[in-house]
Amino acid sequence: MTELVTKGIKISVKTAFEGTFLKNEFIHYAFSYEIYIKNLSEDATQLLSRKWTILDSLNENETIYGEGVVGKTPIIQPGELHKYKSGCVLRSPNGAMKGFYLMENYSTSSQFKVRIPSFKLSATFAQN
Q1: What is the pLDDT of residues 33-64, one digit of tens each?
Q2: What stretches of 1-128 adopt beta strand conformation (E)?
Q3: What is the CA 74 to chain-centroid distance, rounded?
């Protein structure tokens, strides 16, 4: 599991290779990732938006922006954990993801970025 703490918010990531499928005459590689967001600070925070950079070994990179995560903008109380599962598809068996969440501190109304640690996506058969 990959972990990183930014401004009192701990992000942990666990990944899995889900399999392959054929689309438009190309093999695609499906991955899932589970994100754990733990509020280690003394203030309630809300996850407002996200930015992901998805990299693959064919150098076909993609950047994604969006509100919340999987349709939610969770409020995370001090000491609480919010987790969710999502996924992505690559055209190669290896890649990586990284990014950040935009959070708001409820006590100060200030917004801040929380880094999502870079994590690898590797098809089981392609691992060394």
Answers
A1: 999 999 999 999 999 999 999 999 888 889 99
A2: 2-6, 9-23, 26-39, 45-56, 62-67, 75-76, 81-90, 94-105, 111-122
A3: 15
